[in-house]
Amino acid sequence: MTKHADADTRRLQIAEALIRTLADRGIIRTTLADVATAADVSVGLVQRYFRSKDELLIFGIEHVYQRAIERVRQVQPTTPIRDFLTRLMETLLPLDQERERELRVWLNFVQASLTNPKMAAIHQTATADLIGGAAEVLAAAQRAGELDTTVDPAREAAALVAFADGLSLHHAVTGDRYDAAGIHGALTAYISRLFDRGAAT
To answer: Which residues bind DNA (predicted)?
Structure first.
């Protein structure tokens, strides 16, 4: 393994440890020493790749978003397009233990982005990309005759992303009232209403 590959592996190892630690302790209580312990490495090794906690946090949120992107890319396009869109949006919901942990980390980063311009920029870019992708799917549904052409893809995509984020937030905060089955059902119902309301005749 080359030194470059080894460095990349180490950075990912530390990022995974950061995610586990943040999910349990939150940003304020998490230290570089905590992350080093979770990664089973020394604090000095963590600092070799990340000079500060902020630098590590920036890499961490980018890593979380990259994992989400990889899940989205694994969803194969199918028809009807409403089912394809549903499966795409499902990848963003905390429907398993891994995404449950990522949600807790994401919420920590969202709060931090209110006062950290670099984190805010990452969130803005990721959200814009997500909305843009959803809008493209809705536009494809219009071309396929599944969705009425009077529907505004960009506006509905923004609303859909906000709805999914809201489901995730309430799941994290209220637990059983928004359990995995509940938020999955709510997403399916939302998309069904969107397509049924605008279905071409």
So the answer is: 31-50
CB 119 within 8 Å of CB 97: no
> pLDDT digits over 124-178, tens only?
999 999 999 999 999 999 999 999 999 999 999 999 999 999 999 999 988 778 9
Q: For residue 34, give every residue at least 6 positions away whose Cβ sits within 8 Å of its Cβ, in sequence order, or none.
A: 21, 25
Is residue 112 within 8 A of residue 27, CB to CB? The reply is yes
What does R_g of the chain's alpha carbons equal in angstroms? 19
Six-digit token string for 117: 């311009």
DSSP code string of 66-116: HHHHHHHHTS---SSHHHHHHHHHHTTS--SHHHHHHHHHHHHHHHHHTT-
* Residue 57 and residue 78 in contact, taking contact as beta carbons nearer than 8 Å: no
Give per-residue pLDDT as tens, 73-102.
899 999 999 999 999 999 999 999 889 888
- Residue keyed to tokens 């509905």: 156
* Both tokens assigned to 107: 């919420």
Please, is 64 exposed, middle or buried when counting C-beta atoms within 10 Å of its C-beta (0-12, 13-18, 19+)? buried
What 3-state class would DSSP assign to 28? Answer: helix
CATH number of 1-51: 1.10.10.60
Going from N- to C-terminal start, the domains of the chain cover 1-51, 53-197
